[in-house]
## 1
Amino acid sequence: MKTFLVTVIALCLVFISINCKKSNSQLNSDNADNSECNSPSYNVKFLQISGPSTYSQVKSIFGVEGNNFRNDFNGEDTIKYYKWSPCSSNGIYFIECWFMNSKLILSRKTINDNSCSNNISSQSFSELVNGMSYDQVKSILKDGGDNFRNDFDYPSTNVKTKYYAFITVLTNQNI
């Protein structure tokens, strides 16, 4: 499990393109829609989502219906995919929840929580060793990261895997 966690952290460093804190110049250049879309209240709502929630329980956190954008059927199992977005004008900011047989199995967000300190350097990255605990990684990077995805151990109530971003990677979506 620890090996998997370090692998996930390394992948986050490479592939995450929209999480963490932006610089002041970037924040000032964002339009009003982006600041509304990147609402701190949606980050709070994301953290309130827990397994094995039902769709109704998650919907009550947001206070509105989710957008059911996909359904998969695999034998006896049904997976329904829902999105909630803090604004209608920008589709890159959202929280998504997947439900298998009406129980939450995954929650993820593309909304920043402004927690990343971007303390990653080649030196701090080289100090990361396969098998480290999350607490050890936090200590090296001097940052708790932005929890952007949770996979739930269906059908139990436990979070199976948490994913974190520790760095902002600029893309054409956020520059």
## 2
Amino acid sequence: MPEPIRHPTGIIGGGGGSSGAAWVVASTLDWSAEPAVDLKVAGSLVDANGDTWTAANGGNASTLGTDGATGLRIVVSSNCGIAVNTCPEVSTGLAGLVSGVANDDEVYVLLRVTHPTASGNSRLGPSLRVSGANMHAGAWYVASPGRLEWGGVSNASQYADPSTATPGDTDQVVGVRYTSGAYQIYTHGAWSGTWPTDPSSGTFVIGDGESSGNPKTATTILLASASLVLLGLRGAAPNPDLTIIAHRILHRASA
């Protein structure tokens, strides 16, 4: 049984947690195989699976788009905020990526990524968003002590950044497990050539509400109506240079 998602109000089932249902592959996209598209100009792209990704806040990036070789590249050029939706991003409806997803289900977003090694304060990761509310999790480069750490934001100005260094910065896999009310981050280490089949093959790092000294209030992101957002954040110069090589989404139904 995967580790339960924790929340300040207690452990939540999050859908699927008690059903015994198996994780299944909902969708996979190799961003490095996508043709080069400058999303600061084009505004959107249709990927190889037929899903439309819409770009936003390109003015806060010097690069936002696919480069036809390494993946989806985001170079953030201005300070921005996740909670106020000003970070350069691409997004698409989760229901289009996960057929039949229901609010009581679970989704596991796996990113094969290259993180920054020498950026100011920057974050790369996925968000689920509904009506301006966000649940975001990823790797956060902290200028002091000068390393990448794991963290997330589930509500305006509510961050969780534990003092746990990431295992690396080049071609690694990180997974974020979402329900409608919480998230968990897992690291799967360097890309091995095959995708993980469920969260239990990774190392659990942190979940919403588990940061010391900064408890969260409840956030509800209904999965059936959520958008999946891939974004970069800059909290301080220099500019983070972030690349998403590929992603895979797993789905576990509640019943």
